[in-house]
Amino acid sequence: MRLYGIVGWKNAGKTGLMERLVTEVTSRGFTVSTVKHAHHSFDVDHPGKDSFRHREAGASQVLLASRNRIALMHELRGDPEPSLQELLTQLAPVDLVLVEGYKRDAHPKIEAHRAVTGNPLIAPDDPTVRGVASDTPLHLDLPVFDLDDTKAVADFILREVGL
Is the domain defined by 3-42+81-161 classed in CATH 3.40.50.300? Predict the structure, then answer.
């Protein structure tokens, strides 16, 4: 499975870049899936809904299905968080999986960076970061892209993964 990550600190532009990359890469005829890591508790369900009630009653997994989409929720109930590699086994085959987050994992990555956040770059200390997409010029020994130049970032990622 071809895998490429987008990492960066909070408010660095990761999600916007991910969204634009999915649009750009799929417009070129490739299939794309995404994985997003959340550092906090989150819920995709709503109190009072049937699926929420199933989870609250103790179901380990709840599968919602309609003619438009399916969603599988798996309650960990104290079990350790699955690794990225374990999660990838849950995905159907696609041309490219884009991963937002998981900055400590070993897959290749682009760092999203906005100067206004004041956060340091991850790239200089992480050899898995292969390039930086930034809103300010940077002088690095890595490719640096304008954060809004989605086409150039997509070209780079597709070359890197052999597509």
Answer: yes
Confidence of residue 116 (pLDDT cuts 50, 70, 90): very high
Among candidate residues 152, 123, 160, the one with its CA nearest the CA of residue 7: 123
The candidate with the shortest Cα–Cα distance to 159, out of 131, 135, 137, is 131
Contact 19, 32 (CB under 8 A): no
The mean pLDDT value for 126-132 works out to 98
Radius of gyration in angstroms for the set of CA atoms belonging to the chain, rounded to a whole number: 18
Residue of 130, 135, 158 whose CA lies nearest to 21: 158
Name the pairing type of β-strands 61-65 and 70-74.
Answer: antiparallel
Query: What are the structural domain ranges in the chain?
Result: 3-42+81-161
What are 20's strand-pairing partners?
none
User: Does residue 87 have a pLDDT over 90?
Assistant: yes
Question: Nearest CA to 32 among 96, 88, 100?
Answer: 96
Residue that the structure tokens 């369900």 belong to = 45
**How far are the Cα atoms of 75, 94, 150 from residue 29, in angstroms, in the given order?**
35, 11, 16
